[in-house]
Amino acid sequence: DRIKRRGRNKLSNMFSGYGQSQSVLYQIIDAVETDMMDKEGRERAFDNLQDWDEGDLHRLVSAFLGVRFPMALALNKQDLPSAKEFIKNVQEKLPLYGAHVGIPVSAKSEMNFVKHHIIAI
Fold this sequence. Notes:
- The protein is built from 5 helices and 2 strands.
- By secondary structure, it is mainly alpha-helical.
């Protein structure tokens, strides 16, 4: 209940132990709040924490983890024609599971890289 009453300040204090500056935390909070406004029309979401659900909390933690521990999502099988639409859909839905970048890859492209760069040495 204290978190719900104190909103943005209480949440930022909770994340401060992870080695991020207050300005970075406020940037993350502002980005999540902007996302909630753009996608759901929820203005000033951090002033209304009593309306949050688990998905909202997950979105905040995911945004924080994406800044604190950046991750890339490897989108395999890019060389298959059927993968183009799938890769596009995944990249449009980012951030996803803490990953903010999706990199198309394939075993074929990896082997070509190895042949030209590693084996040639």
